[in-house]
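1st attempt posting a full record on here, be nice pls
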Amino acid sequence: MKIQIPWIFLLALITTILVSCDDTISELGFTIQPGKDVISVGSDTLFLTAKTSQVDSIFAKTKNPVLGEYIDPLYGKIKSDYVGEFYYPEGLAFKDEAIIDSVRLSIAYSSWVGDSLAPMKISAFELTKTLPTSKFYTNFNIDGYYDPDSPIGEATYSVASSRKVSDYYTDSIEYYMDVKLPNSLGQKILNYQIDHPETPINTNIFHQLLKGLYITTTFGKGTVLNVDYTHLFVHYHYIGKSSIGVDSTYVSSLGISITPEVTQINRIQNSNSQLLVENDEYTYLKSPAGVITEITFPLSQIADQLESHSLSLANLTIQALPNESEEKFKLSPPQAVLLINKDSLSGFFENRKMYNNLTTFYATLDSKFQYNFSNVSPMINYYKQLQANKGEKLQDITYLLVPVAINYISKTDAYGYSYQVTSSMSHLMTPSAVAISKKPENMRMDLIFSKF
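the predicted structure (as tokens):
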């Protein structure tokens, strides 16, 4: 009869093995009666190599752009702005005999990077031609889409001086930055409604009246805002009958927003040259559209072992380095990173793909300042089989560490308990940066093999 080994005993054995890894598979076999049932367990260590790579651009069709300019003493400059169309809800219209009072652009945000007291200046430009239906990347060339000499609205601001609105139920605070725009913009919308009563305004018609706005900063280098919403309000008044039949003046507003249904492109400029200088100690991550870490897995070194052994465990821990700079304002490390094959990155976010724990993995920064991927053996076994199907031996592969934002949704189980599941993953647009140790002791992957 075949005797089953308790899992807790096997885990204890694996832990003991990890403490004493060497460069070859060391057989730590034990015999289970009858004699033909022999399990041979061995360990090995694979040393990886890493380097910093420039990010030319990233997919940047986003509902939460970043706006501003910030210079970090270690990681350099980030400059960000965005262009966007507005979504016009069905049935939205002015009241009869409306008279335009004012038009304003309102930008809402709840977080930022940098100095809350730093003075900044925002400028809004009307687009002169329609945005493309593709090419939603951070290197989008804005030239030709606006007149740089003719802003339709400007305002100076700081985080500290922004209008604040508190949410009574969540205790959260939303900050608002307002930019006065010309009344003629609202009048154009009103005139169309008056002249075409048989054709209600929709989003397509509205884009003929206002193709969109380019929103950028033209002064200041101290703050980058994480924008939650971009609203356009047309304030007006009209004469209407009161409840007792007397003519009265009423005030109202027509509000539209940039939403996921329309195009919004975040443009990013970085200075990364100081991060690309080769060194023996560390690589870098910087978002958005900054630099990433490229990791090479020398799998060819263990190709022979994998022909006769089964890989059951491959621990990969990426050691980040705390920023010990005494600067008051500095970039924080990304909280989550994606580990993805270099050849698979193109189209991953555009097609809204998710990590699968087979060829793509993600990890969050823990209290030890580490990104722990736990067990990436499925990835190695996948490529082993892939190459075997081609009649080839396992080759080295190159992976990328990419800062990402993870979005969650809440679900409820059959017992009424709520839990969260990952709903989507995107490039991290919030400014962040961290150094990654690439010393040999921090770029090692411990392997556990078994042979039956």
